[in-house]
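[step 3/7] fold_predict: job queued, chain A
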Amino acid sequence: MSKKSKLIIFTGPSGVGKGTILEKFFDIAKKNNNKVVYSISSTTRQPRAGEINGKHYFFISKEEFEKKINENAFLEWALYNGNYYGTSKEFTDKCLNNDTSVILEIELQGALNVMKKYPDAPSIFIMPPSFEELEKRLRGRNTEDEETILKRLNTAKTEIENSNKFKYRIVNNGIDEAVEELYQIFIRETK
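[step 4/7] structure written:
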């Protein structure tokens, strides 16, 4: 890993706006010719409406995922809400060795695991303005049943309790402000 390429750990509870923040961040990064890519995770969960295999996630079977675990092919992996999620070692190493930073959007367990392996990696936690607002956003997506929403809210409590373990915390009071804060952190960390 060069001094200018960084592995950037990015997490926060489901429904906090991580995907929207990153989408706008990458627009700004591209416009400014920053060398940074999004790490596409593998998962065993089913795609949501509009998600594209190879763009949002690599959707693979449980058997294929477990084979990759046994081959030690993941930088990190975790079981989250009944599904596996993992980050490819090969992809990450290739980018970092080519002076390109990699943003890992991963859940808390994976983030903490990567932070142990890469203690110098900048770590960023996206916070909701309030727990009530987070619940409103989750319910407003209309993508999951009540049981799943309650599971996600319960998980979010634990995630927020662990947010102090991250170098940076960004409160998503508004997308544009959160994106600008993320971009400034990126610039500072990759100088």
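[step 5/7] annotate
The chain has one domain: 7-189.
Residues 71 and 78 are 15 Å apart (CA to CA).
exit 0
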